[in-house]
Amino acid sequence: MQAGNISEMEMEEQPVSVKRGWRFHGTFGTLALLNLICAIDATLLSVALPIITTDLEGTTAIQAFWVGTSFLLCSTVFQPSWASFSHIIGRKPDLLAALLFFTIGTIIASIANNVCRGLGGGGLVALTYVVITDMVTLRERGKYMFVISLQWAIGSVIGPVIGGALAEKVTWRWIFWLNIPFCVIAAVGIPICLRLCIKEGSIRAKLRNFDWFGSFLFVAALTSCLVPVTWGGVMYDWSSWRTLVPLLLGIFGLIGFIIYSVYISTEPLIRRTLFNSTTAIVAYIGTLVQGLIVWSLLYYMPLYFEVAKNYSPITSAIAIFPFTFTVAPAAVIVGLVITKTGRYRPSLWIGWYLTTLGMGLLICLNQSTNMPSWIFLSLVAGIGLGMLFSAQGFAAQASASNADLPFAGAMYSFFRAFGQTLGVAISGVIFQNVLKKKILATAHSTFADEWSRDASFLVQVVKAWNDIGEEGVMKEVVINAYIESLRMVWCIMCVLAGVVFIASLVWTWEISLERKLQTEQGFRWLIVIVILLIAAFMISSEEYWLSQLLAAASPALLASGVGPEVGGGDRKICPGRKTGARRD
Predict the structure, then answer these.
(1) What are the distances in angstroms from CA 164 to CA 11, 58, 313, 318?
(2) How confident is residue 381, by pLDDT bands cut at 50, 70 and 90?
(3) Which of 184, 195, 244, 330 has its CA 20 to 30 A from that of 439?
(4) Residue 468: what are its φ and ψ, rounded to 5°?
């Protein structure tokens, strides 16, 4: 068995944890809500893209997909920086900063673009896993990690439906305004509920420890790699300097980042010790591939139903329910099973087997596939991917030492987001290039460049064509080309899933989940001022109440230090800290 750099002392069984009060559950509920928002945001656009493309008068399909890709890309490249920064300034300030970026980005996205929203969303997702490692032991973490996975599963279900309904019935800009009420709830919940210990020292000294150069190099290099991947072969040829130059610069930049992190940086953005075992490496690669497959399905399955079945955006979103609705139950069941048994390898193996089988079954989809058939074909992949939502996180964190656990959680989140970005970008490139090739092989080859250049907008055009005459012939050609292009996407996803399945069989080891909870920023239990909370509902002005509550509560909390919570719970003193020590 490989256990990386985990000591026997770290593997000792953790004593029974104390009963947790309302602050703990309030914090976790807020984190779950934030992840649900991010999950919905990441999937809202999948079925609304053709309508958005028409409204924005986009000239290429890749430009249309940039509406979704820009969010995922920014959410991905900044996740390690957010996680590393939380160790410098503290979890709560970092989490609030990410929420601020997300809220501001939501407002901007409804008017202009999606980049700032992705920056904040990446911070919210990465910091969720970091904070959870501060709150519960590794063995207990399954009960909480599967709830977070459940939020992403639920978001994957309702996101496309909400996005399609708003884009079709109201306006797609409401897709972004929908976030504001939830951001307000989180902005209130985090300061009230989240209380973590922080490391002593001045802000200036802490900021000096942050790997500024490494963070800049990583973000710049990864962005430089991802951007040309999204337009290669469609917007620009793969041989074009516009594709090759940024791609090569990004690759050399990532190589430089690795050398800098290993040999130069004293506080590297990404720790080398996270990859000390084959279990961790396979887990991170598997998480990337899982994210890639999930987002390929979410963005391209609706195209099948809209084109091959002539469904509306809302109906297309409902049609992928057999896939999205099976993800959530599978994630919940696997999370509970692993928490009970302490074993994650069987769930990984079964999950990857079903995912490989499910993606292979999707190749059978065609224009004449009836409803019972495409429902069954979608179920298998959904169950397999749902199992992996919980199992992958256990494998990644079990192979990390206690000191690396927060970084392992953030790295798991990063690789999943990285896969999501690649899923939209790479699948888009494959789809568009195959579509162009298929049309070139028909009698309508003169339209190949035009149709493949704007495939999302072409969905609306195909719907407007008649079923008879010359338009009927053209419509049949485009539909067949769409189906063949999607088959190539499913085929490649099937191969990737099969490779990871074999790798997990050979190189994934079972590592004990029994671990002591050791963290520098552990969750703190504070005295609850019940009378003030009850009075909150009796004062009509919420702004007045909030200011008065904070003014009245702060001196009392600072004077009392730590203590039992309402509803039970023992005192929990932060290691090495005195009662009444400063909070973040």
Answers:
(1) 48, 18, 5, 10
(2) very high
(3) 244
(4) -125, 165
Say what the pLDDT of residue 553 is: 37
φ and ψ of 346, to 5 deg: -60, -40
User: Is residue 297 a contact partner of residue 324, using CB atoms and an 8 Å limit?
Assistant: no
Say how far apart CA 568 and CA 135 lie, in whole Å.
17
How far apart CA 92 and CA 418 sit, in angstroms, is: 24
User: What three-state secondary structure class fits 523?
Assistant: strand
Of 133, 509, 150, the closest CA to residue 343 belongs to: 509
Residue keyed to tokens 């559950």: 25
Q: Which two tokens stand for residue 527?
A: 């005295």
Of residues 101 and 19, more confidence is placed in 101
- Listed by start position, the domains of the chain span 22-210+267-437+481-507, 211-266, 530-560
| 3-class SS of residue 572 | coil
Q: Which of 381, 576, 413 is nearest to 496 (CA)?
A: 381
The values of phi and psi at residue 232, to 5°, are -60, 125
Mention every residue, 6+ apart, whose C-beta is less than 8 A from residue 357: 380, 381, 384
Residue 456: C-alpha distances to residues 89, 443, 484 (Å): 43, 22, 16
User: CA-CA distances (angstroms) from residue 474 to 59, 70, 234, 447?
Assistant: 21, 33, 22, 10
451: nearest Cα among 315, 307, 300: 307
What tens digit of pLDDT does each residue of 467-503 get?
A: 777 777 878 888 888 899 999 999 999 999 999 999 9
- Residue recorded with tokens 């410098």: 88
pTM of structure = 0.72
Quote the tokens at residue 455: 């495939």
User: In the structure encoding, which two tokens stand for residue 488, read together?
Assistant: 């190539």
Which H or E run contains 273? none
**Exposure on the CB side of residue 334, measured as CA atoms within 13 A:** 31
Backbone angles phi, psi at 576, to 5 degrees: 80, 10
Q: Please report where in the chains the tokens 């392992």 appear, as a residue.
A: 408
Taking the CA atoms of residue 438, residue 442, residue 444 and residue 446 in that order, the dihedral angle to the nearest 10 degrees is 70
Architecture of domain 22-210+267-437+481-507: Up-down Bundle (1.20)
pLDDT at 306: 86
Three-class SS of 62-119: HHHHHHHHHHHHHHHHCHHHHHHHHHHHCHHHHHHHHHHHHHHHHHHHCCCCCHHHHH
